[in-house]
Design brief:
- Its EC number is 3.5.2.2.
- It is globular and about 70 Å long.
- The protein has a domain at about 70-375: Metal-dependent hydrolases (TIM Barrel).
- The protein has an 8-stranded parallel beta sheet. Strands 3-2-7-18-19-20-21 form a 7-stranded mixed beta sheet.
- It has 13 helices and 21 strands.
- The protein has about 475 residues and is an alpha/beta fold.
- It binds dihydropyrimidine-2,4(1H,3H)-dione (DUC) and zinc ion (ZN) (3 copies).
Length: about 475
């Protein structure tokens, strides 16, 4: 073996084991006792988990007219420092641009910067995109995304959504949906502004949870009618989760995601007072994302949903905008605050601390939510998301007792604030390995730009036929 990792507790979604990991040519070559190799790593007192997979990121993206603060390079630095070794980013076609041209453009953008492995979901914006769905699997793209919100920009109508889910199924693609009723949100926003309600809290007040649950209900009904698979991104509310529960109980092939911000903040954070001169009342803009942050009962319902398996994936929706130079575009109009929050760096540690440590979320479930189920759904089964023979040796040596105080002063992403500033948590990666190579250890990076591989993904059907999940 090239490398053997000894004395750790290996965790997969289906169990834990005290075994050595033997690595050869970037792959896991053996799991067992008393393996020997040219190099040995001691993992005493640590967990060995599969590298995190964040399947919901917006790096190097123009969204709502603003360029995200993080490009692929800074986003990947943050990802690595947090134990994430693969991600899938959204590619938005420009109006009139084809899906294949969009994909080529994004592959070009990331290539020279990448530190970790990356894939792309394509966003469906117009009817002409349907013609290209049969070509996507050949390009290694097994998922597409539809927006039912963001009127007049990326929102599509119900008819195009229906046709997309129908054709995606036919061609082995998984449809993802941002489920909020964009038409009614648009009306509520205009009405609020006409009444001079301009501050960040009105972002939440104009996007009530009913507009999420109604939209999830619609999307799930389409999936049910068509017997097609559907993935609901960033479920934020108890009402939304109720729709997930109902659809799953009826046997719809539906999968749901939530993100750390919905588990750890509430709409009260939109009313925070800050310390920045002249912007004291605008601090809450840092927490503006869509769907918006909700109430404590929603948080509790989401934690319960994680435990019960109603929520299948925790990803981030990492979409970072600087506070001073970007969020302030909405100083006198909350609807102009760029929508998005960071998370790619903190996702794993937050779920570990607030989930595993504070709420007894089993380690197996942590691994399922952060790596194995994302890999399974998004066509990486057999490659990533598990520590098993033949899989890529993406191994994180996770120290359950590592103390961290999250701060803008120590994060690796490129952003002028940290959403979790001052959070004192326990747990984090000591060492991160991507395809058998140590890329991060004890706070130091050992990786060069261009290191990442394009994730050529297969159809979700492949996972259903061969997968380890039932
Ligand atoms: N919501 C956000 O907050 N940012 C990016 C996209 C989205 O749907
Ligand atoms: Zn979204
Ligand atoms: Zn309903
Ligand atoms: Zn998103």
């Amino acid at each position: 073996m090239d490398v053997v990792i000894k004395n750790g507790i290996l965790v997969n979604a289906d169990g834990k084991a005290e075994v050595d990991i033997g690595i050869e040519a970037g792959k896991i070559a053996a799991l067992g006792k008393n393996l020997s190799g040219r190099k040995t790593i001691d993992a005493s007192g640590k967990y060995l988990i599969p590298g995190g997979i964040d399947i919901h990121t917006h790096l190097e993206t123009v969204f709502g007219g603003s360029q995200t603060a993080d490009d692929f390079l800074s986003g990947h630095l943050g990802a690595i420092a947090g134990g994430t070794t693969s991600h899938i980013n959204f590619c938005f076609p420009d109006p009139g641009q084809s899906l294949l041209a969009t994909l080529a453009h994004w592959q070009q953008k990331v290539r020279s910067k990448s530190l970790i492995d990356y894939g792309f979901h394509l966003v469906i914006r117009e009817e002409s995109h349907l013609e290209e769905l049969p070509m996507l699997l050949e390009k290694g793209v097994s998922s597409i995304k539809c927006f039912l919100a963001y009127k007049d920009t990326v929102q599509i109508d119900e008819e195009l959504f229906f046709k997309t889910v129908e054709k995606a199924k036919e061609h082995g693609l998984l449809t993802m949906v941002h489920a909020e009723n964009g038409n009614i949100i648009d009306y509520l926003v205009k009405k609020a502004l006409a009444n001079h309600f301009i501050s960040p809290i009105f972002h939440a007040r104009t996007r009530p949870p009913e507009l999420e649950s109604q939209s999830i209900h619609f999307a799930a009904s389409v999936a049910s009618m068509l017997k097609a698979p559907l993935y609901i991104v960033h479920v934020s509310s108890e009402k939304g989760l109720e729709e997930i529960r109902r659809a799953k109980a009826e046997g719809t092939d539906l999968w749901a995601e939530t993100c750390p911000q919905y588990l750890l903040f509430t709409e009260r954070d939109l009313e925070r007072k800050g310390h920045t001169p002249n912007l004291e009342d605008f601090e809450g803009a840092k927490w503006v994302c869509s769907p918006p942050l909700r109430k404590e009962e929603d948080q509790q319902a989401l934690w319960e949903g994680l435990r019960l398996g109603l929520i299948d994936v925790v990803s981030t929706d990492h979409c970072s905008f600087h506070f001073l130079s970007q969020k302030t575009r909405g100083l006198s109009d909350f609807s102009k605050i760029p929508n998005g929050v960071p998370g790619i760096e903190e996702r794993m540690a937050l779920l570990f601390h607030y989930g595993c440590k504070q709420r007894n979320l089993p380690m197996e479930r942590f691994v399922s939510l952060t790596a194995e189920t994302p890999a399974f759904l998004f066509g990486l089964e057999g490659q990533k998301g598990r520590l098993a023979e033949g899989y890529d040796a993406d191994v994180v040596l996770w120290d359950p007792n590592k103390r961290q105080v999250l701060s803008v002063d120590s994060h690796h992403i490129q952003l002028d604030y940290n959403l979790y500033e001052g959070f004192a948590i326990e747990g984090g990666p000591d060492m991160v390995m991507l395809r058998g190579k140590i890329i991060y250890a004890n706070g130091q990076f050992f990786v060069e730009q261009g290191n990442g591989n394009y994730l050529f993904r297969s159809s979700y059907k492949h996972s259903l036929n061969h997968g380890t999940k039932s």
